[in-house]
Amino acid sequence: MKQNLRALLAKILTDEEMQFAPNSFELVGSDGKVVAIVEIPEELDDRKAIIGKTIMHTNKSVKSVLNKATARKGEFRTREYELIAGNPETEVLHKEHGYLLKVNPQKTYFSAREGTERQRIAQQVERGEVVMVFFAGVGAYAIAIASEQPDVGKIITIEINPDAVEYAKQNTRINRIADKVKIIHGDVRKEAVHFYGECDRVVMPLPLFAANYLEDAIRCLREKTGGVVHFYAVVEEGDFPTARNLVEEACVKMKKKCKILNEHKITEYSPRKWKVCIDFQVS
Description:
By secondary structure, this protein is of the alpha/beta class. It has 9 helices and 13 strands.
């Protein structure tokens, strides 16, 4: 897809413009209705429409092309998009690993590129576990976990964006797992306290601010047996020690033993910065 886009853009952009041309785009959706998301620099503002049409040409399933107009901002972690080609209706059904997710990139945060990471977490969940998902969005982690581990004890999700909460409710119904997921609309700091000491696992997929909630995550784990936390952060490429230190400092402050189980890169967040995950055991 990256190669095809560059090759097609090279036919319509000048050599100077190609220095700023996007290398790739993200696809959200399936079954003939897909939204493409691209980031076009301001140097190509007057070429956005033709770039949008070119992206649609690379994939006949693409019905809408959105350009990232702003960075993610606000408590809902959403960004503003500009429709540069196709249909203004951008709600789609996204299929991954055998389940469906109804999403609208213009209303809620969702990354199709992190489907593999969601599956990685889901495959670690054991029978009977109670799993907490902070910043749960449209319920993607909850759906992945319940689909992969049908004998999960309970999944609790907390999300502050009301649009995301509504999509999460729809997604649990679409995938017939509503009985396994407790969806809470609210702020993690205010709602997590109700589940201190009740969980076996906590997922924290908010990389820029998750460090502020590490103590809440640790408190959610069972007092006697502890549990596992999946902590996400954004660091300079290869700088795992920064994220690891945040985890270890929180455990020391909470007077808990901490064992790093795994650390790995997920996706490039911005030039030379990566979203990473630290899996750690608390006891």
